[in-house]
Amino acid sequence: DPPPYLVTVFFGANDAAESKNSQSVVPLEEYELNLRKIVAYVRALGPSVALILITPPPVNEEKLEAHKKSQGKVLDRWDRHTSKYAAAVRRVGKDMDVSVVDLYRALGGGFSGE
C-alpha cells in the first residue's frame, strides 16, 4: 500500500483526565514520549507524508461538571491540567519540526466560566 498523503495526530483530551479509575489516563511524560514515537513512525513512512499534530481542546469545567452531574458522575478533567498536555504537543512540534494546530488556544484555552 502507498503511504498516506496526510496524517493528523489528535490525542490528549482523554489522556489528560485526572481520574484514578480511568484506563485512558496517560501520565504527561509518557504522553509526550508517545507523541515523539508517533512522529518518528510517520516520518519513517517517507518524506512525502504530511504530518500535523493537534493539541487537545481546552476544558470548560463549568459546562463539563454540569454534564457529569446529570449522569451521576464527578468532574475528572481540569483545564489547568489539559493545558500541560497542549504544551507538550507544541513542544514536540517545535522540537521535531512538525506543524501544530493549536486547538487549545484557538478555542480560548483557560476558560473563565463565561
TrEMBL record:
Gene3D superfamilies the record matches: SGNH hydrolase
Which top-rank group of organisms is this from? Eukaryota
Q: Which Pfam family is an annotated match for this chain, by its short name?
A: Lipase_GDSL_2
Domain SGNH hydrolase-type esterase stretches: 4-110
Q: What InterPro entries is this protein classified in?
A: Iah1-like, SGNH_hydro, SGNH_hydro_sf
Q: Which PANTHER family does this UniProt record tie to the protein?
A: ISOAMYL ACETATE-HYDROLYZING ESTERASE 1 (PTHR14209), ISOAMYL ACETATE-HYDROLYZING ESTERASE 1 HOMOLOG (PTHR14209:SF19)
Protein name as annotated: SGNH hydrolase-type esterase domain-containing protein
